Amino acid sequence: MSLHSAASHQGWRPSNSAVLALLAGALSFSLMTVCVKELHGHLPVAEVVLGRALVSVALSAALVRRAGLDPWGQRRGLLALRGLVGTAALFCVYLGVMRLPLAAATVLQFLYPTITALLAWRLLGERPGGRIGLAMAMGWLGVLVMVRPFGLGGAAPPLAVDGVGWAVAGALLTAVAYVSVRELGRSEHPQVIVLWFPLMSLPLCLPLVALDPVLPSAADLGWLIGVGLFTQLGQIGLTHGLVQLPAAQATTVSYAQVGFAGLWGWLLFNEAVALPTVAGAALILVSILLSRGRLPGPPQARLSPPTQRSVPGPAEAPGDG
What is the pLDDT of residue 66? Predict the structure, then answer.
């Protein structure tokens, strides 16, 4: 059953299902950052990325095999590039999460939507419309309010410079990876796209882990499994959303992850939620509602009929990444 038929049967447009998938992905990615932060000081980041890759490869390979798909795809060079860039982004994002408050790390990661939109415009010809442009502007303003630039917010301690650098680098690489996912959605099944991500992570991580191996404790193993599982679930929403919606619209909806991160930081890590954080989260919520108000269906002229028929809905592949 395709995403289009499932959505029609439930009285939802395909764009509704794509938005829900993106929001579920944002929640899953926020829980993944909780697991990463819990591992700070216990394991080197290469082991965290490797643990994530092992879980994702096992789950993705099983689902690709169950669906009867060719795991190697059609555009292997671009699939490999997406995996390499995504892995590099993952290293940077994890290092940022480990060195910064959870909300701040996530906010800085959300430098990527504007970069994604610009790259999608230049490389894919996806020009943002009027309302989606306003939504992106409000979301970006919300990010700036939460970061509190120019010394605003007074009593808040300054962010670690190295953590900010890693988070910004992760945002730049994430934008490149997301545009490649959008491009791959024209020819590749989402499950194959996601499988290639951890496949490329393995050869990058193994030498680094061999140089500095650390035996994880039982608790560390639990958090590592959580990193892999929540990343896998997040990839479901992200990939299905990106292949159904233009990149600028999809990444605007993903701003919800910032609000989730602020909540977990407050509940789990005693990170105070200041007024600028609340104000920024409100602006981001408005941006999501604006983008939700006009989300077109999948770009019929850009996706081939086989790709459209093969895209499963999130409910059909609950463990897919």
Answer: 93
The tokens describing 208, both together, are 């680094």
Which residue type, as a one-letter code, is found at position 50? Answer: L
**Domain region containing 201:** 3-316
Residue 28: per-residue pLDDT: 93
Total domains in the chain come to 1
Strands (E), 140-221: none
- Residue 321 per-residue DSSP state: -
Cβ(37)–Cβ(271) under 8 Å? no
Cα–Cα distance measured from residue 189 to residue 177, given in angstroms and rounded to the nearest whole number: 16
Q: Helices (H) and strands (E) in the chain — how many of each?
A: 14, 0
Q: What is the pLDDT of residues 175-234, one digit of tens each?
A: 899 899 888 988 999 889 989 999 999 999 999 999 989 999 999 999 999 998 898 788
Residue 321 within any structural domain of the chain: no
Instruction: Please give the Cα distance from 304 to 79 (Å, whole number).
Output: 18
Instruction: Kindly report the pTM of this predicted structure.
Output: 0.74
Q: Record the tokens describing residue 111, joined without a space.
A: 């430098």
Q: Which CA distances in Å does 218 have to 22, 128, 215?
A: 32, 47, 10
